[in-house]
Amino acid sequence: MQLKTNVTEFILLGLMQDPVRKKIVFITFLFFYLATLLGNLMIIKTIKTSRALGSPMHFFLFSLSLSGTCLSTSVAPRIIVDALLKKTIISFSECMIQVFSAHFFGCLGIFIVILMAVDRYVAICKPLHYPTITSCRACAVLMAVAWVGSCVHSSAQILLALSLPYCGANVIDHYFCDLELLLEFACADTYMVNLLLVSNSGDVCTMSFVLLMFNYVIILHSLRKHSVEEGRKALSTCISHIIVVVLTFVPCVFIYTRPAVTFPMDKMVAVFYMIGTPLLNPLIYTLRNTEVKNAMRKLWSKKLISDSR
């Protein structure tokens, strides 16, 4: 399918063209990427080694940190390196790999957020059935379905990209490859592909966002039946989840629910989704989760004591 195209590489214009501003981009993204790695790896290490963090919610938080790390890694290192180069070139094959990996881990993160919302619904609204519904086996099956679903979604993106012939211009006014950006260089009618793109990404994001918000409305409504202390704890958890849902889904809805038309703020929205959410989402969950914070303190206090000996 790739033989249809005359384009073998693309030129990424990145975020900035000014040399001074590119240095600022380099420093800024290096800092945020290292912070993302450090924060997520700390969460992964803490949950993996702490016996107290064995609930389904912590299992999903572990998976969210892992997917966020991979999502950020799919684009951030390239941005950091490109900020030091005068001309940034990405081959056609590398571009396709980037499209696949970005959509795979982005979609996986969305599925995990949905699973976390379902977990909260069962825990608060169906507490007697919670151990049965959210057993280890059930969580493993749900996570496997999330991985398969993400693979199907990202594979569809690649098939749509490879179905088009490319010729002529090859300069992408962005910092990474995405299908909606590649449509501009196709030497064919892209109406159906764009329609499929909106259906595959935009509609799914929008419907998932609406259903999740409706889910949390039901949860918040059911808190009236709980005691004050239980309600306060559940409310704190739900607020952090709602913040993460908004941060995750709003950028996706903005980017993928409209035709292939670029806006000036597209880059900033994409930057926030690719770099910001992998850093903020696990951080928000952790800061509002006493069990994780306590386990993290114990783990690193033991680490410091062992190192001092």
Automatic annotation (TrEMBL):
SUPFAM superfamilies: Family A G protein-coupled receptor-like. The keyword Nucleotidyltransferase does not apply. Keywords: Cell membrane, G-protein coupled receptor, Membrane, Olfaction, Receptor, Sensory transduction, Transducer, Transmembrane, Transmembrane helix. It holds the Pfam family 7tm_4. It is found in: Cell membrane; Membrane. Belongs to the G-protein coupled receptor 1 family. This is Olfactory receptor. The gene is LOC101717668.
